[in-house]
């Protein structure tokens, strides 16, 4: 009886707790009944610019040319659909997302073929040794313990074997570390990602200074009438952004990150990419996307109360589509513009006067952290598009 009451008491507590949790959850969930919503045509896919469902964010972004092709969505980005299991998290999934960069594929292999087997083998060995000691040398079986205090052979072994295991792991690991910070080759597409509390701005300095501002898309119940909200075509809740970063596949990308306020981190799991965005400095890395698709990520450096609400959505498209997008955004492809942007300068790659000139021009274009982006990042953006206290905002 007592036990029964105690259990039901605990059960009541548990039910109350879960009700509290689901209560919070349903507030967020009710805002976006997945699939139940008569999905308005994905705004990013078909509607012309200026449609009532356009978020104010689009207005805050620099004025862009109208779409020039039916392949391009209202924001000039090629329409790309989400592929199940690629570039997005999957419920109940264990392990890493499928990787679409060379470093990511290598790292994935290393995780699955090197690290996991080594960890498993070491754990099993230590467990077996412990079990053996516990059983074989228990007091009943071993009433008079040995007084041995040294054994050279076993001491050499337990020093050397871990060293060998570490060296075996270090060889591919150091190679991967080096590959992750390899400078981009000439001809790479430069993407500059700038962290802000709490949204991302992007610049394409080699493509006529295209600029984007990307805010998280709010749920249906969180927007003002007529304001754009997230649909399933935009991406999962908390990961869909109003503006996607468009990048070409098969072309090296030079990623430069910086920040306007605190440290953020630009991270896309499917790219094996996580690069801190630090105010006052530029971090750089490079990667090449193998497959067209839609890839989602988030800020991965705790940057304040709305840290969880600054998603990253990358749309990787064939180079020709990328060029069309650049033109639709009012930019131009390198080579079709001033000669200074035709060659992407590499420090020390070419000391000729022309290259130096190009380097200087590019330096001026990418500039230090507090460059034009800082000034043009509209102060109103956050006010216009930051989500009001709502789902997931309770901690603020
Ligand atoms: Cu952040």
TrEMBL record:
Main location: membrane
Low complexity biased stretches: 347-396
Membrane topology: Multi-pass membrane protein
Domain of life where this protein originates: Bacteria
Molecular-function GO terms, alphabetical: copper ion binding; cytochrome-c oxidase activity; oxidoreductase activity
Region (Disordered): 335-396
Listed transmembrane segments: 114-135, 156-177
Listed name of the protein: Cytochrome c oxidase subunit 2
Organism taxonomic ancestry: Bacteria, Pseudomonadati, Pseudomonadota, Alphaproteobacteria, Sphingomonadales
